[in-house]
Amino acid sequence: MAGATCRRRDGCNTLGAALGLSEADTRAKLIDPAIHARGWTEDLIRREETAGAIEIIDGRPFKQAKGRTDYTLRIKAGADAQPVAVALIEAKPESKPPGHGLEQAKLYAASRRLNVLFVFASNGHQFVEFDRFTGLTHAPRKIAEFPTPAELQERYQQGMGFALSDPAAAPLLQRYPTGEGTRRYYQDAAIRAVLEKIARCERAGTPSRALLSLATGAGKTFIAVNLLKRIADAGQLRRALFVCDRDELRLQGTGALQAVFGADAAPVSSGNPQKNARVLIATYQTLDVATDDADANFLLANYPEDCFSHIVIDECHRSAWGKWSQVLTRNPGAVQIGLTATPRTLVVSEKTKEALADQQVNADNLAYFGEPVYEYDMSQGIEDGYLAACEIVKQAVFLDGERDCEEVAGVDKEDLAGKRLIDAFTGERVDLDDAREHYDAQSFEALLLIPERVREMCADLFAHLVATGGPEQKTIVFCARDQHADRVASEMNNLYAAWCDTHECKRADPYAFKCTASVGGADYIADLKAASRSHFVATTVDLLSTGVDVPPVRNIVFFKYVRSPISFYQMVGRGTRLDATTGKLMFRVYDYTNATRLFGEDFAQKYRPPRQKPRVPGTDEAPEAPAEPEIIISAGGFEVRLVHDGTCIVTMDADGKAMPITVEEYKQRLATRLITEAPTLEAFRQRWIAPVQRQEMLAHLPDAGRSAVIVQLVDDMAAYDLYDVLAELGYGLAPRTRLERAEAFTYKHAGWLSGLPAKTAATLHALAMQFARDGTKGLESPQVFRVPDVVRAGGLAALQALGEPSDVLLDTKARMFAA
C-alpha cells in the first residue's frame, strides 16, 4: 500500500507494504518471550476454548470451529494450589495498534464470560490495559513492562478485599477433583465467582450468599458438586444440603455427588432423613416445603436450626419465596448458594398476574442473595456451542387458517358460528347461544375447546415433523389442560397411523401419549428419554416444564398460551441440551401462541431466521450440503468411530459391548485417572521425562494408554506432543505445538545456552528441532545422534562437554517441558 510504513526487524523504518508478523507469530515470537521474562510461566497461562457455535443453514445444523481466547493469566498461591484466573490478553498482529483488541477482550471480561478483572491487548511491542476495578484504561506501555504475577496478585487481593493466604480464600485454591480438561470456561468462572463472593462476605462479616443464573443444560449440577467438593477439601464443610425440585433432579444430583463424595452423599426420602450423611440431597416435596400451605413438618422434625454449614438451592426461583424459604432462614449462618435458569431480566410484554409474579420472584431473589455473581444465558450457551442451536417456527393457525388469535386479541361470539364448541371443564357440547360474547386468546383450550382448531394445529405440526426428518422425532407439546392434552395425543396418533399406512411402514406404539400428573406422567419420562422405537410425542400441561433432563427432545411445541416468562424459559429449556447419542445439535420451537414473545431482546437479535442454502451461480438450484461423515480413527489397533460431527466416541465397555459416550465424558475418565497417577503438573512432568515411568503411567490410563492418542486425534492436535495433550487435559496447561515448544526452549534457557561452548549450544538447538519434528520419542530414539542436523551442529562429541549424553538428553527433556 503506497505510503505505508514498515518497521524492519532491525528497528529501522522503511516505506513499503505493512507486513509484520501474523497474530500467531506475534504470540509465539514476541508476546510469549516477553511475558515469560516477566514471570508468566506455562503453568500460569491457559487458553480457554468453546465447543464451537452451531449454525443452522436451511434447517440443518453445521458446527463451526472451536473458539479460543489468546491467553488467560492465572496466579497461584502455592506449588500445588489451583491457579486463579485474574486477567486475559488479546493478541493482535504486529502491524495493528496495541489497543486494537481491547474492546473485544473487554467484552469477554466485562460481560463476566471469563470473570477476570484485568484486560490486556497487545501487538507484541506494546500493551494496553483496562482495569475492571477502577474502570480505567491505561495508555500504551512497552511489553517489557508487563505486570508480573506478583504485581497482579497484589492488585487482585487489594480489589477483592482478601488475600489468597486468608482461610476464607482456601476453597479457591483447591484443585478440581477430575482435572481441568473437562470443565468448561464458564463453569470455572462461575465457581470462582461464588468462592470469591463467599470469601468477601466472610472477611466483611456479612451473610455468605451467592446467586448464579445459568441456562438449563449449562451444568448447574457440575458447578454445585465442585463448589461443595472444593469447600470440603479446604476443611470448611461440616454438613451440606442440596435442595432440588422433583425426584428426577434428586436422582441426577445424587449420582453426581456420590461420584465425588462417595457414601458421604445420600438422598433424603420421607422414610430416611440421612442424618449421618455429610451431603444430603432432598427435594422441596420431601422437606414438606413445596407449597405455601405445606407444614414443613419433615424439615422441622429432622433438622434443627443451624444444622447445615452449606446449602445449595436449585431452581431457587420457584414458589415465589413461599414455605421453602424456611430452609434458609433456619440456617442463617450457613453459606447459601442459589441456582436458577431464569434470566435476571425478564421480558414482560404484558402485565399479567403471572408475569408480575415472576418479576416479584426475581426481586425476592435479588433482595436476598444480591445480584448474580455470574450469569450465563441460553443465547450465550448456543453461541458457544454448549447448547443446541434453536430454530423458531412461528405459526398463525386459527379456525380457518386466516387469522391469528394474538393479532385479533381473541374472538367474538359471531366468529364461532358454525364451529363445534366444547366446554374444557365438563367436556359437554356448548351451543353458540350459550357461548361468551368474547374469548381472549388465552381462553382457547383453557376454557373452550374447538376440535377443528386442535385438528388443524396438529395437522400443521405433523406436516412440519414429516418435512424435517420424519414424524418419529422426540417432541414435547405443551397443552392448556388435561383434556386438551388427550385430544392432541389422539390427533397426533391418528395422523401418524395414516402416515404409516400410506408409507407401508410399521407403527411405533405408543407414538403420542399424554404425560401429565393426573396419569402418573412421571412414569413415562424414562421412555421419552430413552426409548428409540416408541414414545415420540409427549403431550403435557406442565409436568415436563421443569426438572426433567431429556436430551433427545428435538421439538418444543406451544399449543398453550404462556404468560409467565419463568415458565416459558423452563419449557424451552427442555430442548436445549445436546445429545451425542442421537447426534442432536439443534432443536425447534414451534410457536402457535406467540409464546416466543417472552424471549429476551438479546436472544431475538442474535438468532435471526435460519439462513438458506447458497444458490449455484447462474441457476436457481441450491447446492446440497455434504452429509456429516462418520470418522473412523485408529489408535494402536483400537478403532474408534466418531459420529455426529465428532461429538460421540463409540468404544467398548467393560463387557466388550460397543457403547457411545461423549468426548467430554471420555476425557473426564482419562483426566480422572491421570491425576490419580500424577496429582500435580510437576509430578506429571517428572514421570513424563523418564521413559520407564512414562510408560507405566500411560499403561494405567483408560484403554491401556491409547486414550491419550484418541484425544489427540479427536481434538486435531497432531502438531502437539502427547505431553501437551495430557497436560492441558489434567492440569489446565496452555498447550504448545512441538515447534512452539522447541522455539520456547531457546528463549527460556537463553542464559544457560549462551554460557555453553558454541558447538554444544548448536547441538542442543538441533535436538530441539528434532523434538519439533518427532516429539518426545524423537529425543529418545537411539538414532538421534545420527540425524544430519545434529551431526553438523557438533553431535555426540559436542554434548560430552556437559557429561554423559544420556544425562544430557534427560536434562534437555526436562528443560523442554519446564514451565
Oligomer: single chain
How many runs of DSSP E, i.e. beta strands? 32
The dominant shape is globular
Task: Could you tell me the CATH topology label of the largest domain.
Answer: Rossmann fold
Name the CATH class of the largest domain: Alpha Beta
Helix content: 25-40%
The CATH superfamily of the largest domain is identified as P-loop containing nucleotide triphosphate hydrolases
Spans of 5+ residues with little confidence (pLDDT < 50)? 1-17, 399-408, 604-628
Question: How many discrete domains?
Answer: 5
* Number of distinct helices: 27
Outline the structure in words.
By secondary structure, the protein is an alpha/beta fold. Helix content is 36%, strand content 16%. The strands form 8 sheets. Strands 3, 6, 7, 8, 9, 10 and 11 form a 7-stranded mixed beta sheet that branches. A 7-stranded parallel beta sheet has the order 14-15-13-16-17-12-18, sandwiched between helices. The model is unreliable at 1-17, 399-408 and 604-628 (pLDDT under 50).
Labels describing this entry:
single chain, 819 residues, alpha/beta, tt1808, chain A, Rossmann fold, 5 domains, 7-stranded mixed beta sheet, 7-stranded parallel beta sheet, 27 helices, globular, disordered N terminus
In short:
The protein has 27 helices and 32 strands.
Chart the SSEs and their pairings:
Layout: E1 5-7, E2 13-15, H1 23-37, E3 45-46, E4 54-57, E5 60-63, E6 71-75, E7 84-91, H2 102-110, E8 118-122, E9 126-131, E10 136-137, E11 141-142, H3 149-160, H4 185-204, E12 209-214, H5 220-233, E13 240-244, H6 247-261, E14 265-267, E15 279-283, H7 297-302, E16 310-313, H8 326-329, E17 335-340, H9 353-369, E18 374-376, H10 378-384, E19 389-394, H11 405-408, E20 411-412, E21 422-423, E22 438-439, E23 448-449, H12 451-467, E24 475-478, H13 482-503, E25 512-514, H14 525-530, E26 537-540, E27 555-558, H15 565-572, E28 586-591, H16 601-606, E29 631-635, E30 638-643, E31 648-652, E32 658-662, H17 663-677, H18 681-689, H19 691-699, H20 706-714, H21 722-731, H22 738-748, H23 750-754, H24 758-780, H25 788-793, H26 795-799, H27 805-816
Parallel strand pairs: 7-8, 12-17, 12-18, 13-15, 13-16, 14-15, 16-17, 19-28, 24-26, 24-27, 25-26, 27-28
Antiparallel strand pairs: 1-2, 3-6, 4-5, 6-7, 8-9, 9-10, 9-11, 20-22, 21-23, 29-30, 30-31, 31-32
Helix pairs in contact: 1-22, 4-5, 5-6, 12-13, 17-20, 17-21, 18-21, 22-24, 24-27
